[in-house]
Each structure stands twice: as structure tokens, then as C-alpha cells.
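User: C-alpha cells for this one?
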Amino acid sequence: MDILETIYATPAGKFVARKVGLADPPKLRRGRLLPTGPIVLGELEGGRIGRETLTLIGVTPGQPVLDVPEARVKDEKGRAVPPRYPAKPGAIVVDATGVRELTELEGIRCLLRPVMRSLEPSGRIVILASDASAVEGLEAKAVAQAIDGINRTIGKELRGGATSNLVFLKEGTGPSDLASTLSFLLEGRSAFVDGQTWRVGPAKVAHELSAKPFADRIVVVTGAARGIGAAIGRTFARDGATVVAVDIPASGDALAKVANELGGSALQLDITAADAGARIASHVASRHGEDARIWAIVHNAGITRDRMLANLDEKTWASVLDVNLAAEMRINDFLLSADHPGGLGEEARIVGIASTSGVAGNKGQTNYAASKAGVMGYVWALKEDLADRPITVNAVAPGFIETEMTAAIPFVQREIFRRTNSLSQGGNPVDVAETLAYLCGPASGGVDGQVVRVCGQNLIGA
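Assistant:
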């Protein structure tokens, strides 16, 4: 802890920080917890999937308050203000799947204005809309993108750790396809996902939601010895998974400790080895039997070798691309090439780790940004290659996450990284882990080819 951080932690330091606009960030609701206040449903004309999906996940929605002229009240200064909710709502789900015309966007404003300053801490706004690919006409397609702009803006205007996210629904999507996504967004599992948009479509194989979605299922996590990787392993184990923890031999002791904690197994492996995919499959088969198959593989292992491009030689360049991207591709190529003993199952989930640096670039990280942008491109392309198989492929793109590595960043720089998002704080490793577990869930089969940012709506690339 440097001198500035020491001063900041004192009462006087906190007082000065508040005076200059650096108040303590809100505490976020995490875990499998729904909001404590009522979950309100706002249905615009033509929308019904929101109600059906809420019923499916066991939520009875409350009635929304509408901001219409006749319902407004006067404040102490005589100004007309929107009507108030009798109790702070925990969340509002806006079903805008039937919206096709620009004038119909008024309905979204009418629903959202009363909740913008009324949501409970860590409240939720979830907007459901039809994907542009599922609507006809130029105006309807423009409206879909307009809703995205609404979502990203209100995410930046909310207070107290509240978040807003938008789900675009592809043609043919039903309540069972949407249920896992809506559950994730309403619960504390999505604490650090804010201002984001992704798509859900019809699942090739339907599964019901479960409190232990990975029971009797094998999940492989690379880079599992510490930090985000260890949190990923713990989250999957909490949800019933048999975890195969993978990391380099130099991290063998830490890896064994994590694997033992989770009741799983450890595989010491350099993922850049040409036979890495074969060795993963062999390990699974030897530990769990020839008929065992991997339900999900989480390609978490990664490195940074930050240099300004003017100082970046070919070895440093290649090492980052090899670990962060090429190794993932080689492992997947092997596991997807045939029905290997201990290989991927028929409905496997493949997830990678991208980064906000891959979304927007970052000074001194040309090699890292290239590798993480490459992960996104690979996910989009592989999804198309696997279109005739019930395997899904997705990625998360973390922003600033509090780890041992980021704790070594100088205090002022670290505070800047923490504060430059809508939630004014860094995320926790579990935030990344929860999003990965959501993407790998059996009931998330309708989520495919998506990159979900876990960044608190980081201003970089926002």
C-alpha cells in the first residue's frame, strides 16, 4: 500500500475524496439473489414473452407506474414530476418486443422515467426487444438500434449500483429459451454486467432451469490455479460441476490446492503444447471413464506482456497470441474433430475470455488487444461452423477486475480504472465466473455466438 492509498483509507482522506466527487462506490448485490422489492413488468403493445418468462422462473410481476401528464404531481417548487411508486421496485422488465415504429418508443420512456430514481440499491432494468433480423422494414430495424441507444444511456444514468441491460430476441424465441437469461439478469449474478446488449434465439435442445445446473457434468477450466480461474472453478463447483482444473506445472501446488478444495482433479499442462487437447481428453477419460464427456470448457488461461509497439519484439508478440488465442483454437480443433473418449459432449459449451482491450484497444497492449479481439472474431466464426450441432460458443469480455495482479498497479492509476465505469468500482473475479456459468448452463442453449462484457459499463468502448 503506497502513501496515497494509506491517506485515502483514513477518515480525513475519505472526507476529502467525497468533496471532490470520489464517494465510496455502492455495494453490489451478488449471488443467486433476486431483488427484495417487487419486480414490475411493463408490457408494450404486442409484447407477451416477458410475462410468460417471468411466470416460468417463478416471479409474479407487479404493475408499473406510468409517466403520463395526468398522473404527474407537483414537487415543493411547483414543478410537475413523475408519479412515485408506493415502494421502491427491485426491478422493471420492459417487454418492447412488439415495438416497430419510432412513435412507440414513447412507451419505453413512459415506463422508465418513474423508476430511474426509485429503484432499490442494485436494482435492475431489463429491456426485451425483437432483434433487427426478426423484423421487417427500415423503420423497424432503426427502432431496434434506437432501443440499444436507450439502454446504454440509462445504464449511465442509474444510481446505487442499479443496472440496465437489453436482450434482443431472434425469431422463434420462446419463454424457455429466454428464462436463463432473464433469471441471470434479475439476480445478483449479473452484478457487474451493465449497459450491455446481447441476443437470444431458439435453443436446439431445451433444458429446464436448475439450482444445480452442472450436477453430474464435467467442466474444464484452464488457468485455474488462482485469481479469476480459481473463482470460475468455485462457481461451477457450487452449481454442481465436477471441475477439471488446468494450469502450468509451475503453478502445480496452487492448482492442487484449488482442485482439492473443489473436489475435482488437477491437470498440470502447458496449453500451448501441440497435444494439449488430446491430453485434456485423456485426463478426463482416465479419471471419469472412457464414456465420460466434457460438458463445458472455459478457456481462461491468458498472459500479458505489455509494451509500446515501438518496443515490442517478435517473441513477446507471439507469446501472447499463442497463449491467449492460438492455444484455444488448437484445443478446440482437437476436441471438435471427433468423438474422443473424454472429449466434448454432444451439447458442449465452449467459452473464451475476451477483454475490453480487445473491444476498444489499449495503449501498450497491441499484442494483448489483438489476441482478445481475435477471441471475439473466433467465437463469431466458430458459431457459424457449429450451426448444425447443438454446441454453443460464447465469450466474456472483462473490464477492470480486482485481482492480485491489478492490486500491484499504482493507486492513482488503479482508482482511475475503477472509477471509469457506470458502477464506479472494479469488478470481482466472481462476476466473471457467474457470467461464464450462465453462458454454460444447460438452459442457455439459445445464447450462442455472443460476447458479454463484464465491465460495469466501462467507458472504454462503451
